[in-house]
Amino acid sequence: MKKHLSLNVSFAVLAGGDSRRWAGYPKALGDHFGLPLAQVMARRLSWQHDFMGLCVREDQVHWAMDLSLPLIVEPVSHFPAGPMKGAWSSLLMARAEGISWVLVTACDMPWLPLDIGLRLYQLATVEQTKGAVLCDALGRHSLCFLLHVDCIDAIERLLESGEQRVGRYLSELQLSRYRWQYDPAILMNRNKPN
Fold it and tell me: Which residues 6+ apart lie within 8 Å of 43 measured at CB?
């Protein structure tokens, strides 16, 4: 299948969390039908967009290298760890590589629609926003969103303030909201090993 390279969209998979519900075992390495979750996500979304990498903290590189995937290592900084620091790190790499848009998703959402990047891109383009977030039918956000590199400064300001709530970032960035009206199981994440 042809990738939509003309959109200038790549994607990054966030795997920098502490995996508390997995008893500290890296969630990205968790088994999903015989493959690590991170590899499932990389394969699932790469049919349509180029894979920038798996975003991890510097102290996680030792296990992440076992996946044989490109890595985005969050720069050491005073910013709090969390998904938005991973998104910010991914956007910095995208800007350096001349990429305009980044689809950012958690490593534990293996049922995402294959064309979710295209759907979010189309909505952001029609509504002329700097991105879009995948929401459930009630409007609750998931950890799957498309961001333009123009969001870097706004995200950096919120990181600087110590803000960690993803919803606050998404609201501040005034992203379009793509409400998923179909099977809600698509938006489920693998928060636990079983």
Answer: 35
What is the CATH number for 135? 3.90.550.10
Q: What is the number of structural domains in the chain? A: 1
- The answer as to whether 194 is a domain residue is no
Rg (CA), the chain: 15
- Which one-letter amino acid corresponds to residue 4? H
For the stretch 138-182, pLDDT in tens is 999 999 999 999 999 999 999 999 998 999 999 999 999 999 998
Contact residues for 88 (Cβ-Cβ < 8 A; gap 6+)? 79, 152, 155, 156, 159
Q: Are 110 and 44 in contact (CB under 8 A)?
A: yes
Global pTM exceeds 0.85: yes
Residue 154, CB half-sphere, CA atoms under 13 Å: how many? 15
